[in-house]
């Protein structure tokens, strides 16, 4: 009896094993499902294919608190967001020192007035070392410089400066001394007036109200500040002929009509003035594709930048290309402006002329 039960148990066990082993073997030999692929790392939002990014981008200006610096900070925030690299800002008062530091790799982008760019490109007593490797990224709107006066001085035109106290020369600004001198020279009053030398910026604004001067040379955009002290101050117009005379002596200066709404200040119509133009610059070794992208980020988002600083409202793409620029544009900038249809035949002729001089 026990033998029969044992036999029955063995048979049952064998049946169970016979049924289970094939399923086990099938399960072991079946191919396991492939694991889900790992997500690819996200590229930098605005980075273009094969764009080699530096470890950082440093912009260097005259100050870290002026309008240029505020605009540079806004641009840097955009660059950091889109490129994913640190963007810095630093300062150096001397333009030639900024060029030297950029040449040494201590900065990537700076700015300079055409006067300084001209001297740096050509090499002069003021710039004994030529900087033929500096290139323009984009030009800005001209900055107008001229004389303010007040009614009590009884000056209606530059010719009335004879016998008056006039502040124009400055050992700290060759630009102001040159512009003031050439205007007064053209109108024949340079040796007939009293030159109040080296008057500080604050005194240029308060000097008229304090009767220290009868006329003062300063930037047109300081009108609102000037009116805080001298509400009746007015900006004197100069003729196109004076502008032509100045340009023969100083080819980097320009002449134009001050816009009636200039940098937030209201001016009468048809006020002529000398001007100088500033430009953001970098070295020719700065990668073409990176220069292209930095300029693209600026102009494709200009409305966004205007909200950050109103001065961006003047920096439309149509003023970025100047066919009379004193130094060449960066090749990456040229490619961008050609892609947007704003690079002109005149700009190309000037570019090739300057490159041939290098």
What do you see in this structure?
- By secondary structure, this protein is an alpha/beta fold.
- About 40% of the residues lie in helices and about 20% in strands.
- The chain has 2 domains: about 55-140 and about 275-355, D-Maltodextrin-Binding Protein, domain 2; about 145-275, D-Maltodextrin-Binding Protein, domain 2.
- It has helices at about 1-30, 65-85, 95-105, 115-120, 175-185, 200-205, 225-230, 240-250, 290-300, 300-310, 330-340, 345-355; strands spanning about 55-60, 85-90, 110-115, 135-150, 165, 195, 215-220, 235, 255, 260, 265, 270-285.
- Strands 1, 2, 3, 4, 5, 6, 7, 8, 9 and 12 form a 10-stranded mixed beta sheet that branches. Strands 10-11 form a two-stranded antiparallel ribbon.
- Helix 5 (about 175-185) crosses helix 8 (about 240-250).
- The longest helix has 28 residues, at about 1-30.
The pLDDT mean sits at 87
The H/E string reads HEHEHEHEEHEHEHEHEEEEHHHH
Main sheet attributes: strand count, strand direction, barrel closure: 10 strands, mixed
The helical percent reads: 25-40%
Shape: globular
CATH superfamily of the largest domain: Periplasmic binding protein-like II
Q: Between the first and last Cα atoms, what is the distance in angstroms?
A: 116 Å
